[in-house]
């Protein structure tokens, strides 16, 4: 009886240990936190790395393509990784309010984590260019939303100014804690695969995330023996490609509103990543993005258009890939964030206004 109880307790303990504690607790030793940091978490991180047979087949040459599906984070995007850190540190340092500029996802994550931590959140967004799911999130999580007659770049300029003049913590990716949290995605990929991929394909807006991944891979390579670093491939939408063209784009335009950014704040950091990793920055058209978006959905994976840029970019480089490569494409946000895009861009058969009769429906089914 006693032995049975002991075994049961042990099993329960193992089960508890296996429960994901959120990324700060999971990777504490690699993050700037201490016992004094109040951890504001929604159990973010630990997102699946999904092998894609169809994209692997498309690339050919025995390539294995994996998708890091970060759209499965609590608010549906990779921003949760950065926000758990940014909000926890803001709270630790006594901040009462946070502010960000956003194309949507940052605002959703900031609003959620700020609410959870008991902080006020202010978000500046570009009028008419935030996907509906993201706007709904910022509203319901309780942010104060200021929609400006200008684009993301203008909004960021304003919030940077405000946070310098007033006691409000900026939680855009210029906040170093954001990058610290986001680097954990690279740790997870290495933990899952047992090695780093040959290529990492990632969409770029402000280029915070590509910088965070690179930091993560580099840090892990210091503690894990024989870890090769990946070639970092950053993709931008053709109408919004300041890093590819090495210019400031005044009026960026793309269907991928998340990355509709003309003047990325992490420009210099991104250039270092490209150089150090021997990577490349390239653009993909909105048509390429939608094609990849649909291909992913055919395999059961629904991401937002900006995320599909990573797969669109990979497909474009099909002929450059070495035999038996392992490639990870980062899917930064969930498809449900932007339902309008899916409704407008699909190959489904959708017949409406049909008489509810067996005869009518049998006829439609073709029996
Ligand atoms: N993918 C998605 C879904 C995003 O929301 C963003 C950025 C990116 C990629 C690009 O990441 O800026 O680190 O290069 N979204 C920000 C926002 C700008 O406000 O939500 P990045």
Structural description of this entry:
This protein is an alpha/beta fold. 45% of the residues lie in helices and 14% in strands. The protein is built from 16 helices and 10 strands. The chain has a 6-stranded mixed β-sheet with strand order 1-2-10-7-8-9, with helices on both faces. The chain has a 4-stranded parallel β-sheet with strand order 5-4-3-6. The radius of gyration is 22 Å and the shape is globular. The site of ligand F0G has 22 residues, from helix 5, helix 10 and helix 14.
Chain-wise SSE layout:
Blueprint: H1 2-18, H2 23-26, E1 49-51, H3 53-59, E2 64-69, H4 79-92, E3 97-101, H5 105-117, E4 120-126, H6 132-141, E5 144-148, H7 152-165, E6 169-170, H8 176-182, H9 184-193, E7 199-203, H10 208-223, E8 231-237, H11 242-245, H12 267-277, E9 280-284, H13 286-298, H14 305-316, E10 326-331, H15 339-344, H16 358-365
Parallel strand pairs: 2-10, 3-4, 3-6, 4-5, 7-8, 7-10, 8-9
Antiparallel strand pairs: 1-2
Bound molecules: ligand F0G.
Ligand F0G binds next to α5, α10 and α14.
